[in-house]
Every structure is written in C-alpha cells, then in structure tokens.
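Fold it.
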Amino acid sequence: MMWFDLLPVRTNSILGGRRPLCNIFSVIPQAQGGSHTAIGTCDGRKIFPAVFQLATFVSDYDITIDEAIRHHRLDVSGTDQVTVMAHTDETIIRNLAHSFPSRIIRPSGVNPNLFVLPQIIQREA
C-alpha cells in the first residue's frame, strides 16, 4: 500500500484491483574483458539518471566502482531544474549555469537523501 497515492483520481491512486506504479531500474553491463557490473537503486524519478551515470562512469571512463560511487552526479528528474552534488568541480557548475539557470547545489549524503543511494557490485572475469 505504501506505493499508492492517497489522493483520489490520480494515476497511482488506490482503486480496487489496481496495482501501484513502482520505479525500479537496474543494469548489468559486461565489459569487453568479461567483467560484469550490477547497478541498481531506488528513489522514484532519480533512479534512471543515477544508474545511467554510474554505468557510464564504469563502462565509458573505466573508473572503479569505488570511484564511481564517490564521483559527483547531476539529477534532472523531469524538470528544468538541475540538482548538482556540492563536490562538483566549479568549472562544471559555471558551465551548467548557462543552460540551467535554476540549478541547485546540494550535499550528497544519506539523510536527507537528495540523491539516490545506489548499490553497485562488480565481478571480475
């Protein structure tokens, strides 16, 4: 029941026989050398950008999963507002200001969770 919207007449409102929407997204990319990386998380709209960025860090930039988790990320969850992790390089933040004037810089942490808390593991070939 926790996944339903308590307000009536909405897409995810409680209604007999209805199943709630549930945002889940995970990916298991395989590197050319044969290693596999499993990435997943929860937290609604923030899931896809976070998993996509982590997969890109690991596969395209060949950084370790420890580095990927600590790397700064952006969140654009369907709005014109961009949320940026506070430890993002100042040059990147300045460049984002031109395209996204309504950006917000927030700390990354567990509480409050302003970015998703991803789970990522890697199995070497």
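The CA atoms of residues 85 and 108 lie 6 Å apart.
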